[in-house]
Amino acid sequence: MADEILIERFLSGDVSAFNTLVWRWEKQIYNFILRYLGDYELAKDAMQRTFIRVYKGLSKLRDRKKFSTWLFQIALNQCKDELKKRKRKHVSISEVRRDDSSGSREIVSVIADPNNGPESVTQMDSVTSILKKALQCIPEEQRVVIIMKEYHGLKFIEIAEILSVPLNTIKSRMYYGLNSLRKVLEQWGIDREDLGYEV
Amino acid sequence: MKCEDFKLLMIDLIYDEISPDDRGKLGNHLKSCKSCQEKLSALKATSNTLKNWEDVDPKVNLTFVNESKNFFAGLIEKIRPVRILYGLGIACASILIILSIANTSISAKDGNFNLQMSLFKSPSDEQVNGKVTKMDLEELRRENINLVSNLLEQYSKQQRAETAMLFDEFYKNIEYKRQTDLRFVSSALQQVHYGAEKRLDQTDRALSSLIRYVNVQAQSGN
């Protein structure tokens, strides 16, 4: 059942239709916020607030076909509010190196050894941890574009609409974001082969 | 085109949003530019790296339910639209309270504590509790007399004015009727005069005819 039909049913008084909508988008929105904020608990709180805002404001949505765009806008606003509230600082590259210099080498050695069976789970968690930290090291405006494109499959034009920014600006942020991310990983001494991706 | 111009096309290529024309242009450029080849390769590699971070299940399962409101909650929700009226009411009450406070008087006498509050300034205690003298009574009597005489005078003036107005109206009516009657009488007299003249004229003609006849008879008899 399409989102528009669920929205129409909800606006007619059927709360279960709204719950269906929430369960459909919960995971996506949660992971979007998680990748943006880099914190599991904050992501849960922000996700709940996002859907509460959606619940209260859905009747004001003019074009129901743009629900996903609108949903991401709300989620992004919640992320920005959370950042302002918590006064989070970007993790600097030098801090990461100081704190995790030995740890990251250990992680790299684990990843480098594909024969470590039980560590395969750790391998993925470690990769997640690395990427989570690395994303926090790049500018927010580049991070959000990368997250939306890489993990949510949004087209550049859709991202431009969500962020209210020109299309070429989005592509430019994507380009420089990927470059920034690569530099962060290189500065941490993590080579391409270490993370097991193919060139 | 410079290498700078191909940056965004590389992004389009990686994410399969490139047009066939642009694909051709980029392809031709990459054939001869090693630097751009390396850049594209690095971008692809980073993109692939990111794909290693898989989605996490939030394990939250948000559920929204219809609130069943109790009577008071429903009442409050109904009242909410009239918050402005409540605000105005509170503002008015505050003003009244301030006025009352402004006219507050507190006194302590003979062990009694008196607190007096009013909207308007009340007469002082001395004025209310003081002894009434003969002079005060006389003054009051004179004031009453003056008040009554003023009232009578005003009433008399009003009566005279009304009477004059009535007489004026009556006079106008009488005059109008007199004029009407005079016109009527004048008209009647004119008609009588006209009638009399007509009869005289007829009589005169009749007599003339008779005289002529008599003369003719007289002449024929001769």
Q: What topology does this entry show?
A:
The complex is a heterodimer of chains A (199) and B (222).
Chain A: H1 3-11, H2 15-37, H3 40-57, H4 67-86, H5 93-112, H6 119-137, H7 140-152, H8 156-163, H9 167-187
Chain B: H1 7-14, H2 20-32, H3 34-50, H4 71-79, H5 83-102, E1 105-109, E2 112-116, H6 125-129, H7 134-221
Antiparallel strand pairs in B: 1-2
Helix pairs in contact in B: 1-3
Question: Could you explain how this protein is built, in words?
Answer:
- The complex is a heterodimer of chains A (199) and B (222).
- With 199 residues, chain A is an all-alpha fold.
- Chain A folds into two domains: 3-85, RNA polymerase sigma factor, region 2, helix turn helix motif (Rna Polymerase Sigma Factor, Chain: A, Orthogonal Bundle), CATH 1.10.1740; 93-193, Orthogonal Bundle (Arc Repressor Mutant, subunit A), CATH 1.10.10.
- Chain A contains nine helices and no strands.
- Chain A is globular and about 55 Å long.
- The termini of chain A are far apart.
- Chain B is mainly alpha-helical and 222 residues long.
- Chain B is 72% helix and 5% strand.
- Chain B contains seven helices and two strands.
- Chain B has helices at 7-14, 20-32, 34-50, 71-79, 83-102, 125-129, 134-221; strands spanning 105-109, 112-116.
- Chain B has a two-stranded antiparallel ribbon with strand order 1-2.
- In chain B, a hairpin with a 2-residue loop joins strand 1 (105-109) and strand 2.
- In chain B, helix 1 crosses helix 3 (34-50).
- The mean pLDDT of chain B is 84.
- Chain A binds chain B through residues 15, 18-19, 22-23, 26-28, 30-31, 34-35, 40, 43-44, 47-48, 51, 55, 124, 127-128, 131-132, 146, 149-151, 155-156, 168, 171-172, 174-175, 178-179, 181-182, 185, 192, 195-199, and chain B through 7-8, 10-12, 15, 17, 41-58, 60-66.
